[in-house]
Amino acid sequence: MLTQPKINGIRLNKNYLQVTQRNFNEKDLSCVPLYQALASRRINMVFMTLSTMGNRSFVSGTICSQYSGRKDRLDGSWTYCRNVCTISIYPHNYRLQFLGFLLSLLGKHRLSFHHLVSSNAMLTVIIDQIECDAVIDILAKSFNLPDSHAPFEQEENVELTQFLKKKYPETRATYEEEKIKTYGITLVTGLNLNAYLFSFDQLAEFGQKIRFMEDEKDRFFHTSVHMLSPGQIQLYLLTKDKLSGDTLQTCPADLLSFHGPHFGDRHSIVSRALNCLSCESIPVLQTDCTGASISMILPRGKGAAAKQSLTDIFESP
Fold this sequence. Notes:
- The chain has 317 residues and is an alpha+beta fold.
- The chain has a domain of 166 residues: VC0802-like, CATH 3.30.2130.10.
- Helices cover 24% and strands 35% of the residues.
- A twelve-stranded antiparallel beta barrel has the order 1-3-2-13-14-12-9-11-10-5-6-4, surrounded by four helices. Strands 8-15 form a two-stranded parallel ribbon.
- Helix 2 runs antiparallel to helix 5 and helix 6 crosses helix 7.
- The longest helix is centred in the N-terminal third of the chain and has 14 residues.
- The protein is globular, with a radius of gyration of 19 Å.
């Protein structure tokens, strides 16, 4: 029986602005995608999530709060949520039991959030900053943390950043090179992307269900959760096998991911990757960028071609 899953730590980053572009359609030439617009202004995203599935397509990015007073530089049709923070937890594994515990916790406590996505190293949730102390308190009490752990709050030192940028340009590069360096591009094929629509109570019930699955080794490869409204939660879960239960949609899929460089999106990494696949007419179902990791979920059978396309513009070991 899983009681308190072990995690390696909790990281908190405050003072961000969430920018969202709804009804996203990369084929609409009259509408510049959010990631392209931010890249052209060299505005870095510490977090980004994109979905083209169903009739609720969107792309949403988390940027430094210094841009909150510069709406003239951004698109007036976007929606803004000020004073958000990112809370990341570092799990020991990506088993469904662990995810079930987390989803059940969110549903049981009715913890409001904007987005929650996984990467190869952590799960990151975007919440209103006013709620961060209460959420961290619940997480710290619910998970099994190292004895010496205290939530690590990472702050942006603007003066230090400017100094490093001038003296060591590679620490905050804009990445205009022909080939951007990564730590490797990974492809996992033969997966299933399951879509669900839940209330808080249904989310808690679903979490309990997968928390106590018979096979403790069952794992998930990616998850992306979005709060559509105070009472509606959209969950996307990527697994090897189809899960039982009432899904809105199940789509055969491939997962393409790469790690690096550091400092999140670094202005144009996501934009260059998505533009590359768009030029090759390779559809993207989901894209998430957290920390230094980018994950792309593609229709099954498109992964190999997508990896080859990205290999042409990104450098991997």
